[in-house]
């Protein structure tokens, strides 16, 4: 699946602009700077699929990418959700972001799972908990992906995973497994791909 061409399909900055449901979708969320663009590029073997953001918090759109086809024929859509937790974002911007997320997450049957990216050096932050609250309320299945594994000391790796598992223990829509990835060493990327392939086969 991930050996196939992956191309930009569609951008939406409001619910009315969402593409018609079609292929199964997997979405990626996370704080600005968590490494989401890098992870999407690693996942799809591309250097520039998702632009690595130099202006955190700038993108306010859902960007859809298609694997193995266009908006009608792709086998899988990857959805890049706008980064959150940008300190300088205005209240109004946060409100419009939340509306867009809620509208997207509500009853989108084609959306199989949201991967919530969390910086592996720091672990979960309050804004990540807010994201998970929204996902739990939307009854949208999600899974935590820890990023920047190459920056974390070997002795800390298990601790970070355990802390994270503990924090999601009582969350109804959280998938009780964590994947620790690095877009630099590619650690965990095969696990993430396998997880996505399994979801598509279900
Ligand atoms: P985004 O804002 O979530 O899209 O994050 P980016 O992909 O733009 O990455 C933010 C910063 O983290 C950039 O400086 C990346 O080079 C760096 N980064 C992303 N992933 C990794 C990783 O796996 N390892 C390391 N060491 N740095 C990373």
Description:
This protein has 202 residues and is of the alpha/beta class. The chain has a single domain, classed as Rossmann fold, CATH 3.40.50.300. 31% of the residues lie in helices and 20% in strands. It has a seven-stranded mixed β-sheet with strand order 1-3-4-2-5-6-7, sandwiched between helices. Strand 5, helix 3 and strand 6 form a beta-alpha-beta unit. The longest helix is centred in the middle third of the chain and has 15 residues.
Biggest β-sheet strands, sense, barrel: 7 strands, mixed
Backbone shape: globular
| Strands side by side in the biggest sheet | 1-3-4-2-5-6-7
Small ligands present: guanosine-5'-diphosphate
Number of helices: 5
Radius of gyration: 16 Å
Number of strands: 7
What is the straight-line distance between the termini? 15 Å
β-strand amount: 15-25%
The overall average pLDDT, rounded, is 92
Unreliable parts: 52-57
Domain module count: 1
Helix content: 25-40%
- Tell me which oligomeric state these chains represent: single chain
CATH homologous superfamily (4th level) name: P-loop containing nucleotide triphosphate hydrolases
Say what the CATH topology is.
Answer: Rossmann fold
What would CATH call the architecture? 3-Layer(aba) Sandwich
Short précis:
The protein has 202 residues and is an alpha/beta fold. It has one domain: P-loop containing nucleotide triphosphate hydrolases (Rossmann fold), CATH 3.40.50.
């Amino acid at each position: 699946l991930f050996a196939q061409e992956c191309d930009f399909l569609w951008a939406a900055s409001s619910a009315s602009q969402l593409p018609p449901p079609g292929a199964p979708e997997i979405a990626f969320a996370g704080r600005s700077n968590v490494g989401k663009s890098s992870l999407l590029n690693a996942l799809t073997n591309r250097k520039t699929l998702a632009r690595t953001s130099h202006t955190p918090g700038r993108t306010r759109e859902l960007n859809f990418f298609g694997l193995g086809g266009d908006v009608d024929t792709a086998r899988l859509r990857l959805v890049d959700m706008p980064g959150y937790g940008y300190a300088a974002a205005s209240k109004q911007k946060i409100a419009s972001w939340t509306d867009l997320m809620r509208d997207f997450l509500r009853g989108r049957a084609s959306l199989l799972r949201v991967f919530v990216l969390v910086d592996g050096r720091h672990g979960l932050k309050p804004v990540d908990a807010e994201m998970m609250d929204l996902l739990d309320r939307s009854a949208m299945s999600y899974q935590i992906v820890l990023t920047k594994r190459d920056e974390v000391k070997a002795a800390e790796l298990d601790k970070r995973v355990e802390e994270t598992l503990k924090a999601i223990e009582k969350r109804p829509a959280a998938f009780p497994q964590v994947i620790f990835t690095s877009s630099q060493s590619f650690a965990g990327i095969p696990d993430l791909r396998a997880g996505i392939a399994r979801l598509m086969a279900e």
